[in-house]
Structures are given as structure tokens and as C-alpha cells.
Amino acid sequence: MAETLFKIRTLNNIAVAGLRRLPRKHYEVASEIANPDAYIVRSFDMHALEIPATVLAVARAGAGTNNIPVAELGKRGIPVFNAPGANANAVKELVLAGMFMSARNLERAARYVRTLEASDAELDAAVEKGKKQFVGFELPGRTLGVVGLGAIGVEVANAALSLGMKVVGYDPSITVQRAWQLSAGVNKAANLDELFSRSDVVTLHVPLVEETRGLVSRERLRVMRRGSVVLNFARGGIVDEQAVVEALDEGQLGAYVNDFPSNALRRRDDVISLPHLGASTNEAEENSAIMAAENLKAFLEDGNVRYSVNFPETALERKRPHRLAIPHRNIPNMVAQILTSLAEENINIADLLNRSREELSYTIVDIDSPASGATLEKIRGINGILSVRVLPIIEG
Prior knowledge:
By secondary structure, the chain is of the alpha/beta class. The protein folds into three domains: about 1-85 and about 280-310, NAD(P)-binding Rossmann-like Domain (Rossmann fold, 3-Layer(aba) Sandwich), CATH 3.40.50; about 90-100 and about 140-275, NAD(P)-binding Rossmann-like Domain (Rossmann fold), CATH 3.40.50.720; about 310-395, Alpha-Beta Plaits (2-Layer Sandwich), CATH 3.30.70.260. It has 13 helices and 16 strands. A seven-stranded parallel β-sheet has the order 8-7-6-9-10-11-12, with helices on both faces. Helix 12 (about 335-345) runs antiparallel to helix 13 (about 375-380).
């Protein structure tokens, strides 16, 4: 039985439910640990962190990975895992709450009541007099535009339908899995301009990348229906804040609800800014931690890759005690060179899986006998090989 001990460094407080998935017999987990094999992180910014050569993987207990140098790690053959969908229900509930708050002017109304200076006898009259300024609208029959139909976007779209809303969605990269989960009642927009023009409310569920930066622009806000609402529980940079200010000042936009406060917007009556509450539930934190730990465990112990943002999905059932995990550049003749090196030592290949993603490839090889140190060094010396790991079976 292999007594392998992996050292895991946590860069934030990680829910105990997740850390329990890493048994102490084989894992040392601590917030201060030298030369770790892997990191588990939530919001810690890793861009300025010196990541030692010992690191094999990074797991994010959440969906977004903007705080992780994903591209740099990929070049080093280090997978970055995330937990898509683990916080989907928490964010969905917050999006719906934001939609209700904006439709019925709840934040402004509550703030108004707190400012009233009146006796109990006078309070009813004051409330009746002031409530007219907070008249809102009902959701049934209104159109919700959902930008991004991943785990969260699909849940939001389906929930809005159940509220009696019309729903139009846009996501040119929707996966087969999410398409199956999406209600047939959701209409599809041909492009973003069409979605904005058809919507009373738009909600955003896409990552912040160069293609989505400033996606909510001056031009798109102008084609929305007058008095419409934008909900942003994705990332702040997806919205052009100056364009939002102008649209609010002109009355083109009725409200902006977001999870990313800024001084340009947070004091406005027509803006609801929340302190990044998207995944702030006990359940979401536990689900994300569990998923991150399980992703990490599957990779460290068996080399399998699930839910990585820079590695190809790669899962090979373990049937042999000897396994090699080899990330390499996605160039011709790599697998052939690996197999030739093993054949020269007269090692039989029991099973093999090779997957590619953009410039990176990943190969798992199960062999019937262990490779010698010389053979492993020969494979490591092949131009384009990023690393070679020997994975014994871990029992218990």
C-alpha cells in the first residue's frame, strides 16, 4: 500500500466539509506549508504569489478564476480546477431577489420608512402619503434576457419562466449538458443586440474575459425598453459603468442591481449595490469546497481531470497499479515518442488516453510494469513534455 502524502496549502478559509474529502492518512492540509503539491483557493489573488516548482495543481472553491494565473500555470503543465454549478442555487436566489427588489422599489421604500419621524398614530398616514413614489411593476408577462446559459444562467432562466415571465437567452457556447437542463420555453436570441432589444430585464452570467469586458455598453442600453433593469451578479467589468450612469440619468435605464459596489454608483437611489454576496451561503461554500477537493483528489491520486479551465477533460478508469500522467504541448508525434520510450524498456501498454485543449495535451498511460528512472528521464527529455508523474495506487 502506497503511503503517499500530498501537501495542500489553503489560501483562504475552506469549508471543513470539503477538507474532509482529503483524508489525513494521505493529505497534509494547512494554511502555512512549504513547497506544497497543490493549492485550494477561494478569493485570494494568486497573480503575485511565487508558485514553487513542487505545485502540481490549483483548485478554486468557486466558479470564477480571475484571481489565478491560469495561462501561466497551463504553460507549466499545472491544471486549474474550478467548481461550476456548486454555487448556482445561491446566485440564482440572489438574482431573483435583486429582480424583485428592483421591480417593487423595495430598497428605496424601506429606506424611506426608516427616515420617517412620526408617532404611531401618525405613521399610517405618513406611509399612505409616501408610498405612491414607490409604485413598481409585476414580473409575469415581462421579458427577462439571460446572457450566458451555464449552470447559473440555466437555473435563473427556468425559475423566471415559473414566475410567468417570458425568457430569451443567448450563449453561443452552451454545452450539451446545459442545453438538456434548459426549459424548452426559453427563446433563443441570435445575438446580444437582439436580446437587449427584446428585454425588460437583463441578467448577466458570463465570465470576465476580453470578449465580455464592457458587454453592457452605451449602444446596447439604448436599444433596451425605457425604464428597463440590468442585473449584474457575474463580474463588475462586464458592465460599462459610465454608460450605466448616462442611461440612468436619461431614464432609459430604470435600475441597476449589482454585486460589485463602486463609488460611481453605490450612492444612487436607482442603483442597488450588494457586497459581493453571490455565493455567500453556508451551502454554497460547502458545495464549492467539496467539489474543489474532489477535483484535486481525482487528479493527484489518479491523474484524472474534471472541471478544469485550462486542461482537457480526461478520465481513465484505473485498472493497473502503474500509471503515468504526462501533460505536454499539443504538437505532432508526442504520444508516439512516449510509447516508443516505454517500448524500448519492453513495457506493455495496458491502456492509454490522450486529450487536447488548444495548445495543451494530456496523456494518461497505464502500464503493466513500472518504468525505470532512466526511461522516465528519457520521456521528460522529449521536446514539448511539461512533466511526468508516476501514480501508484493509493489504498485506504
